[in-house]
Amino acid sequence: MLRNMNVNQELSSLKAGVMIKVVPCKDKIPIPGNIISLNIDSHHFTNILEDAELTDSVVVLVGKKNKMASDHTSESYFNVGSVGKVMQVIKIPGMGTKAVIRPIKRAKVTEFIMSNETLYARIEPIDILSELSKVTLATLRIIRNLFKQYLEFNPQIDDGVINLDGENEHSEYIDSILDILNISYNRKQKMLEITDFSVLIDEIHMLLINELEFSKLEKKIETDVTKRTIKEQKDYFLKEKLRGLSTELGADSVEISEVSKIYELQKAKKLSKLAEEKALHEIDKLKKIHSMSPEYGLIRDYLELIATLPWKKKSRVNIDIDKAEAILEEDHYGLKKPKERIIEYLSILKLVKKLKSPILCLVGPPGTGKTSLGKSIARSLGRKYIRMALGGVHDEAEIRGHRKTYIGAMPGKIIQSIRRSGVNNPLFLLDEIDKISSDFRGDPSSALLEVLDPEQNNSFRDNYLDVEFDLSNVLFIATANDQSKIPPALLDRMELIRLDGYLDIEKFNIAKKFLIPEQINVNGLKKKNICFSENCVYRIISEYTMEAGVRELERKIAKICRKTARMIIKDPETQIHVTTKNLHNFLGTEEYRDFSQTTGKKVGEVNGLAWTMAGGVVLKVESNLMSGKGNLNLTGKLGDVMKESAQAALSYIKTFAADYNIDNKVFVDNDIHVHFPEGATPKDGPSAGSTIVISLLSAIKNIAVDQSIGMTGEITIHGEVLAIGGLKTKLMAAKRSKISTVFIPKQNIKDLDDIDKQIKSALNIIPVLHISEVINYILGDLQ
Question: Closest Cα to residue 644, out of 673, 605, 680, 686?
């Protein structure tokens, strides 16, 4: 008590501006009224503290802005700290010095002064307590109640350090709470710097509320974890006891949902014989394994797979040919040949029940309805529909699964999809089968050989399942864009149905019946809000799209509907009529009007017809002669086959130069340049041979070629015109580009039976055996 009186007397004698030695507080903020313990690692500060203890004098305790910094300059200290009394200095051998200090009163440092290597502070004592308002007193009462609750949640705190009955001064009580609360170093320093007592208790109030909520949450989590741990231990003990009793009684294993399900399926005879044997074997292993073993969970997952696979469950299939035709017509416009072939396939399937003929593969450009045809077939048969995207699949395990010994092993996509469908006879669409690839992890196409072979897929073995599963009831259909990229072994197991694309009239009807109503609905419009004129739809097809399918057409219609929706928002009564006159307001300028010039005559420029993954296109071939040394220059990003085709064309002309009244010096004194426009697009194939011959002769003889003529055909060095592929798509491209006359190889006459009458009636198709027939028709008699 005498020491406290001396301290109070000394503090009362302090006046503003008095200078006191500084002691740094690195680890704790010096809150008045609370005893702190400081670790001193400097002989200098040890001497200051010992001197203060001996002389019963005070020091200034200030925190450091950077606790890790070792400098003791005035800039490294906070400007607010506490005046403190040194109670005891203890030197611990090998561990430095520990000082016990009691901060007594807040103080503001007005100036730091360095004298004889000792830092002094000129201070102003801070009094925070003033006359208390009723609100402040009420807040203090709330704080006392909150702090009592806080102590209940934190029994490790010694409540003896605080007089909860209010004998202490209010400021000392609040400072004691501030010292106890678990807040950050910098936050506590900011609280120390508050000079308004009402502001300080408001902050303490908020801190207590937050800490109390956190303590409650912490307690709840601890209680939940404890309950869960006790329950797990109890369950484990009971299971082990039941297991022991079961062993003694010779009874079955403790009831497990997967095991019970297997027994139910066994009793109902819904498992295959091999699956039943495998499942019972795994159950026997499960009985002998500790429930905490990693293998225990793996076996349960495996049993769950066996229990959920549809070994003998089928969907009821009713093949109604009339209904199938109606659904195909309802869902797809045009595609007459593909639909006929699908109906033939379904007819045979109805007669023989289980078809062992090749798998159907729908091949055609993007947007021609391959995937949606698969959906329609599934709907017409009443089968579940499964789609498996093969684009980018390059791991055999994605098809056949991983062995159970691997961590994270799972069945392949075939078995997973069958499991999700819930039946063993769905329609399984293998989408984009031409995009499948392989790497060091195996070749997925090899795994698909067993899946797609009707002679083998009745005993398909997934690596994870390790039991034969019958896939012979599954109706597999594949789709592809490019037949040439389908692995030959897979191609041999499939029957191709080609979807070469739509005519303009077909696209028009698809737009009117399907695309426009769908986009009106998708974009939140009503039929009364927008209408398209017929000429407008045809203009979109011919001048804003250039495709075999209708995806780009759908995007253009969607763009118009979006712009219309924006207008409707501004004026709900607006009615938009899209015509050829205002179409540019929605879609901008035409994108394909000048795609290929098919009018007039040009020297050295000829229209070839080419096939691409996106359908047929008109491929320009341009030739020029210039002074040189007889070199042939080919440009336009050409493949090797097309380069060889150009060499063959030039070889033919050189060989028969006399027949066409051409001086051989032309080939010696000039370089020949053959260019294929759209140089960024790769081009390959032999079918441009006849086009190159006509282009070269036109340039050499300086004879203009009618741009309404197109042609296709492979050329030999003797001038024979050989058969080509993709005739239908090429003729569709010719019609779309306003070409009137087309030369084709005579060997392709048989393919004209599959060409639509609209195409054949719009074109003058001339079959030829030899290139001389084309030369005489286009360039005349050159002899």
Answer: 686
**Sequence-ordered list of residues with C-beta below 8 angstroms from that of 726, at least 6 positions apart, any chain:** 500, 611, 616
Tokens of 593: 């009007």
Residues in a beta bridge with 36? 101
The residues annotated with a catalytic role in the active site are 687, 730
Report which of 668, 690, 702, 677 is spatially closest to residue 744, judged by C-alpha positions: 690
d(CA 565, CA 526): 10
From first CA to last CA, the distance across the chain in angstroms is 135
d(CA 318, CA 268): 26
Distance between CA atoms of 255 and 233, rounded to whole angstroms? 18
Tell me the residue type at 386: I
Beta carbons within 8 Å of 411's beta carbon, 6+ residues apart: 305, 401, 419, 462, 464, 465
Angle, in degrees to the nearest 10, between helices 134-153 and 197-249: 20
The residue whose two tokens read 């008095």 is 18
Name the pTM for this structure. Answer: 0.59
Under 8 Å between Cβ of 297 and 291:
no
Q: For 543-688, where are the alpha helices, taking DSSP H only? A: 551-570, 583-587, 640-655, 665-669
Q: Three-class SS string for 49-62?
A: HHHHHHHCCEEEEE
C-alpha torsion 335→755→507→688, nearest 10? 120
C-beta atoms surrounding 156 within 10 Å: 5
**What single-letter DSSP state applies at residue 358?**
P
Q: Report the SS3 class of residue 290.
A: coil
Q: How far apart are CA 619 and CA 674, in angstroms?
A: 13
Q: Provide the β-strand partners of residue 362.
A: 479, 497
Q: How many CB atoms lie within 10 A of CB 199?
A: 12
- pLDDT tens, residue by residue, 637-679: 888 999 999 999 999 999 998 888 888 888 999 999 999 987 6
Cα(469)–Cα(278) distance, integer angstroms: 13
Task: Single out the residue of 140, 142, 159 nearest to residue 151, CA to CA.
Answer: 159
Q: Phi and psi dihedrals of 707, rounded to 5?
A: -80, 0
Alpha carbon of 655 to those of 515, 701, 713: distances in Å?
55, 16, 20
Q: Which residues of 280-316 are buried (b: 16+ CB within 10 A; e: fewer)?
A: eebbeebeeeeeeeeeeebbbebbebbbebbbeeebe
Report the candidate in 232, 244, 235 with the shortest Cα–Cα distance to residue 287: 244
Instruction: List the structure tokens of 22.
Output: 């500084």
How far apart (Å, rounded) are the C-alpha atoms in residues 43 and 345?
99
pLDDT at 166: 45
Distance CA 620, CA 778 (A): 16
DSSP 513: I
Nearest Cα neighbor of 63 from 42, 38, 88, 44 is 38
**pLDDT tens across 706-761, in order?**
999 999 999 999 999 999 988 888 888 888 788 999 999 999 999 888 787 888 88
CA distance 285 to 279: 10
The first and second tokens of residue 658, run together, are 């006399």
- Of 554, 569, 570, whose CA–CA distance to 520 is shortest? 554
Query: What is the 8-class DSSP label of residue 541?
Result: I
- Short-list 674, 770, 661, CA closest to 722: 770
